[in-house]
């Protein structure tokens, strides 16, 4: 190993914050990794080894390796040394982008999504129209907004009723650029979001997207972020909209892997609605990615569906989860709901079989959400 | 100096320590909380690497303890209170059978309280107690012993011998999520199990390991001989166990999912029986014992020695010594070496005549 190889290893270790040298190559990561089980060309243990041996040239020839990871964190959950290979993948993506070798061709649509989210077609900051001051801000995130403007608005209305002084911000939390390796854009967006919250005079942000939650918290540890479902469990659920003791298979989104408060509050809400829950073998901190994590859909959309069907093999009922991305991924194969559908969508029984929105309908929904909010404000 | 001594714990370490002191001519109380002495070893079948019977080693020692004129054996007894100092400890012992408290005076104490094992049901993906025929090493050891419930036969829950067995290493050991340390003896007993299984049944044996730690005298040689038996070694830390069959040959089997890191492929290994090599842990009541005897505990929870290199069986408290697995996981040779070392420390005190010169009888 020469000096250049060691530099690569040390660079990735520093960027990721992972002490990669701890790896004993036990294989617990690969054995458990859903992606490795579905696609043998991805092997997290091997990727850690290549990084340790400074195999930068090989990885530069095969950037699809670090870009394939679902960034789900299951490896960290099982690693006996506590390593997070997804962080190593993100660090390699970041370096590829810095050297203009990434993101990959398939990520172009995500860059366009990012530009859209930052543009005046979507970006919006509004105070609570009923109160003089804002204490907290509802942040639906672009996934929920693309899935259902109705749910984003109804959640805001409900939060304003229960917690007067709730503003709303539409924007990107920074997850998307972080995942494709645009670290500097991620920092910019974090600062913008914090500034917008500050502009409203609020001190707390509420989000229902586990991705946004983790990303915003990581970027600004002193910033107060609360999970929507814990808030709802506290303030109470709206009146019943036609629940009748259905059984759902509950999928914990991978970004909520270590958020016990999210696991518990979602289950409390479902129990209060009288729903029965089928717990999946891989749930809570052992959950599987739905298949869409890590934005590798740009590389291989069919693989996303293969991963989803592996994940769904554990489930015998209609799906419910608390990430719009997961809801949409499962909806390709079976009836699938977001928990907010059960709370705020009177047509949830009809909409559970709704096919997922692809790129254009999602952007339309986001634009639609902003324009609806602006219209209400004028009235 | 009170020339009586106390040994707490009647396993192999306590037995050896008590015998050494008693053979030197001094009186020693041996207190054991269970209704019998012999500890964990009495429930073992054979020991590595010689594969002699555990009871063949142990029973002569147990008999010597029970008949030794210098040993006052107290079974079904627990320590209730300790006061005093080196040369004159006052120890209250509760005899549980009669609910009676006895007070003894001793000049020194050796703690040989042994170990517990990790409960693998917290590793949800391994399916312990969810599926049948998954055993911990302690349970399997018991099954192999002629005094066990199957008379030493290796059987599945349905009474039939297994056709295939997987032995999973490092369950709860070498894992920051549970215990960071290595439990030292599991690689060796796993090899022992493969031999016993292949001797008693026609089963295929698989070992899912990360490393093979065979450091003692004759241990690497034992490993080489066991490899010649035809054990299937798979290097990889097991990801999980499922009963969800994907092929005909997986039906009605437990499927062990593991990456063979040497090959770089994820394997599904269908077996009838799984043995989990569970971590050796401090006893559940280690905190209570530590408080009673003013012992320090290391970060891993075991009792701390005064100095790892030069005073390996002494503790920060003068006159109190430790021996065996209560100090940390170890094999029988190291356990017995520590027991005899602790006894020799006690004998040094006795020959120096430290402390008070009063002698008291063993009651």
Describe, in plain words, how this protein is organized in 3D.
The complex is a heterodimer of chains A (379) and B (363). Chain A is of the alpha/beta class and 379 residues long. Chain A contains 21 helices and nine strands. In chain A, the strands form two sheets. A five-stranded mixed β-sheet of chain A has the order 1-3-2-4-5, sandwiched between helices. A four-stranded parallel β-sheet of chain A has the order 7-6-8-9, with helices on both faces. In chain A, α10 packs across α11, α11 packs parallel to α21 and α15 packs across α16. The mean pLDDT of chain A is 96. Chain B has 363 residues and is of the alpha/beta class. Helix content of chain B is 25%, strand content 26%. Chain B has seven helices and 18 strands. The radius of gyration of chain B is 22 Å and the shape is elongated. Classes of the chains: A alpha/beta (379), B alpha/beta (363). The interface between A and B is medium-sized, with 21 and 24 residues.
Helix-strand blueprint:
The complex is a heterodimer of chains A (379) and B (363).
Chain A: H1 3-16, H2 28-32, H3 34-38, H4 44-52, H5 56-61, H6 64-68, H7 74-78, H8 85-98, H9 108-118, E1 124-126, E2 136-139, H10 141-147, H11 149-162, E3 166-170, H12 175-180, H13 183-199, E4 204-207, H14 210-219, E5 224-227, H15 228-235, E6 247-251, H16 260-272, E7 276-279, H17 301-312, E8 318-321, H18 324-331, E9 336-338, H19 339-344, H20 348-351, H21 359-378
Parallel strand pairs in A: 2-3, 2-4, 4-5, 6-7, 6-8, 8-9
Antiparallel strand pairs in A: 1-3
Helix pairs in contact in A: 1-8, 10-11, 10-21, 11-21, 15-16
Chain B: E1 5-8, H1 12-23, E2 28-31, H2 54-67, E3 71-74, E4 77-85, E5 88-95, E6 100-106, E7 108-111, E8 115-117, E9 134-136, H3 137-144, E10 164-171, H4 186-200, E11 204-209, H5 219-229, E12 232-235, E13 240-242, E14 254-260, E15 265-271, E16 273-278, E17 280-282, H6 286-293, E18 320-322, H7 332-352
Parallel strand pairs in B: 1-2, 1-7, 2-3, 7-18, 9-16, 10-11, 10-16, 11-12
Antiparallel strand pairs in B: 4-5, 5-6, 8-17, 13-14, 14-15
């Amino acid at each position: 190993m020469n000096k250049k190889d060691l530099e690569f290893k040390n660079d990735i270790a520093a960027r990721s914050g992972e002490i990669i040298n701890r790896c004993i190559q036990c294989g617990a990561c690969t054995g458990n990794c859903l992606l490795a089980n579905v696609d043998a060309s991805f092997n997290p243990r091997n990727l850690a080894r290549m990084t340790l041996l400074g195999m930068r040239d090989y990885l530069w020839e095969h950037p699809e390796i670090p870009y394939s990871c679902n960034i789900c964190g299951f490896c960290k959950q099982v690693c006996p040394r506590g390593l997070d290979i997804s962080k190593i993948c993100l660090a390699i993506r970041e370096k590829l982008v810095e050297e203009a070798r990434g993101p990959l061709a398939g990520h172009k649509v995500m860059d366009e999504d990012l530009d859209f989210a930052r543009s005046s077609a979507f970006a919006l900051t509004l105070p609570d129209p009923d109160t003089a001051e804002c204490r907290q801000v509802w942040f639906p995130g672009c996934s929920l907004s693309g899935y259902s403007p109705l749910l984003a608005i109804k959640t805001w209305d409900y939060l304003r009723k229960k917690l007067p002084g709730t503003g709303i911000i539409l924007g990107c939390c920074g997850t998307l650029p972080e995942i494709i390796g645009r670290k500097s854009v991620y920092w910019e967006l974090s600062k913008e979001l914090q500034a917008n919250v500050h502009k409203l005079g609020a001190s707390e942000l509420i989000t229902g997207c586990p991705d946004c939650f983790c990303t915003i918290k990581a970027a600004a540890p002193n910033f107060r972020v609360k999970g929507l479902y814990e808030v709802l469990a506290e303030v109470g659920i709206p009146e019943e909209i036609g629940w009748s003791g259905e059984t759902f298979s509950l999928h914990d989104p991978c970004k909520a892997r270590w958020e016990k408060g999210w696991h518990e509050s979602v289950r409390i809400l479902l129990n209060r609605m009288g729903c029965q829950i089928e717990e999946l073998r891989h749930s809570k901190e052992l959950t599987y990615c739905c298949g869409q994590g890590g934005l590798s859909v740009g590389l291989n959309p069919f693989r996303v569906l293969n991963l989803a069907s592996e994940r769904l093999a554990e489930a015998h009922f209609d799906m419910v989860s608390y990430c719009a991305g997961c809801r949409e991924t499962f909806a390709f194969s079976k009836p699938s709901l977001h928990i907010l559908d059960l709370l705020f969508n009177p047509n949830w029984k009809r909409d559970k079989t709704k096919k997922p929105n692809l790129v254009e309908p999602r952007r339309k929904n986001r634009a639609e959400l902003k324009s609806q909010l602006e219209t209400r404000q004028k009235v | 100096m009170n020339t009586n001594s106390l040994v707490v714990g009647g396993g192999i370490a306590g037995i050896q320590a008590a015998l050494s002191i008693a053979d030197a001519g001094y009186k020693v109380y041996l207190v054991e909380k269970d209704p019998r002495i012999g500890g964990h070893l009495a429930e073992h079948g054979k020991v590595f690497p010689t594969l002699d019977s555990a009871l063949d080693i142990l029973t002569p020692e147990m008999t010597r303890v029970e008949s030794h004129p210098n040993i006052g054996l107290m079974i079904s007894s627990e320590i209730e209170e300790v006061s005093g100092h080196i040369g004159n400890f006052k120890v209250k012992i509760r005899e549980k059978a009669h609910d009676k408290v006895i007070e003894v005076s001793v000049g020194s104490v050796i703690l040989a309280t042994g170990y517990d094992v990790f409960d693998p049901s917290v590793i949800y993906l391994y399916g312990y107690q969810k599926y049948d025929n998954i055993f911990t090493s302690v349970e399997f050891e018991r099954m192999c012993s002629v005094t066990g419930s199957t008379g030493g036969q290796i059987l599945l829950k349905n009474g039939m011998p297994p056709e295939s067995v997987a032995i999973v290493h490092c369950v709860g050991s070498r894992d920051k999520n549970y215990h960071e340390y290595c439990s030292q003896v599991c690689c060796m007993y796993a090899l022992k199990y493969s031999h016993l299984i292949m001797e008693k049944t026609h089963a295929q044996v698989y070992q899912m390991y990360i490393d093979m730690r065979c450091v003692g005298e004759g241990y690497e040689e034992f490993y080489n001989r066991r490899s010649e038996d035809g054990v299937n070694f798979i290097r990889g830390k097991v990801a999980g166990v499922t009963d969800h069959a994907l092929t005909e040959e997986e039906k009605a089997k437990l499927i062990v999912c593991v990456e063979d890191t040497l090959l770089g492929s994820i394997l599904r290994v269908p077996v009838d029986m799984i043995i989990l090599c569970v971590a050796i842990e401090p006893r559940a009541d280690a905190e209570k014992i530590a408080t009673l005897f003013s012992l320090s505990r290391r970060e891993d929870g075991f009792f701390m020695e005064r100095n790892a290199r030069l005073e390996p069986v002494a503790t920060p408290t003068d006159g109190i010594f430790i021996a065996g697995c209560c100090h940390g996981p170890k094999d029988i040779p190291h356990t017995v070496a520590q027991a005899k070392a602790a006894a020799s420390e006690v004998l040094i005190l006795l020959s120096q005549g430290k402390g008070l010169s009063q002698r008291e009888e063993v009651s």
